[in-house]
Write a structure and sequence with these properties.
Blueprint lengths: L1 E2 L4 E6 L6 E6 L5 E6 L8 E7 L4 E6 L15 E6 L4 E7 L6 E6 L4 E6 L5 E4 L5 E4 L9 E4 L4 E6 L3 E2 L2 E2 L2 E6 L5 E6 L15 E3 L4 E6 L2 E5 L4
Antiparallel strand pairs: 1-2, 2-3, 3-4, 5-6, 6-7, 7-8, 9-10, 10-11, 11-12, 13-14, 14-17, 15-16, 17-18, 19-20, 20-21
Length: 223
Amino acid sequence: AYAPETHIITVTTPADTPAQVTLIGAISHRVIGHVVIPGAGVDSVEQPQWDPLTERFLVSVRETAATPTQPAYPNGEVAVIDPSAVALDKVLPLSQPCNPAGMAIGPDRDILLGCDNYSAVIMDKVTGAIDTTITQACCADEVWYNRADGRYYTANFGNLDGARPDPVVTVTNAETHRFITNIPIRGINGAPVSAFHAVAAGFADSHVYVPESDGVHVFVRVP
C-alpha cells in the first residue's frame, strides 16, 4: 500500500516471526521501520491499504492469539498503523466470524473485508462496527472498490451451490450496501474455476477483470 501524501510504502511480511509490516520511503528507498502485529500467526497478516480519511495504513489480519497487550481475536481484526509514529495505533476486532483476507477502502467510513471462510462484511473503519454482511456468496480473497461506478467487487472463490463449487464475483452497491448480482466465474469449457483469487474493476461501465489459468477474463456491464 502507498501513502501518496507522505510517500511511504507499507509491505506486509506475514511469514516473519513475529508477523509485521515494514514502512519504506518511496523516494529514499530506505526502510523507515517495522511494526509488529501482536498475536498474529504465520501467514495471518494479509492486505494493507492506505486510508486518506484517517491518514493511517489499515491491514487485514486473519486471526490473532492472546498477548500481554490484547485478548485473542479468533475472528480476525483490522490493524491500524500510524506511519508518522511507526507504531500500531489500534486494532479493530471482528465481532463475527470472518478471518479477513482482502480489504478495499470504500466511501465515507466504510471498508469492505473479504472473509476467508464466511460472507464478506462492510465495516466502519473508525468504530470497528460491522454495518453489513453480504450473505449472497461466501469465502473471498481479494476485494475491490471501483470509485467510478460506486460498487464493490468480491472474489468469492470458495462459494458453493450446495456441495458443488460455484465461484462468483459478488457485486454490491457501495453507497446503499445492497447486493446487485453474482458473476459466475467459469473457464472456456464452462466449468467452475475455483482457483481464481483476484478481481479488479474500473470505469463507469464496470469493466471487471478476473485472472484465471487461461488468461484474464473481462466482464462489462450490459446497459
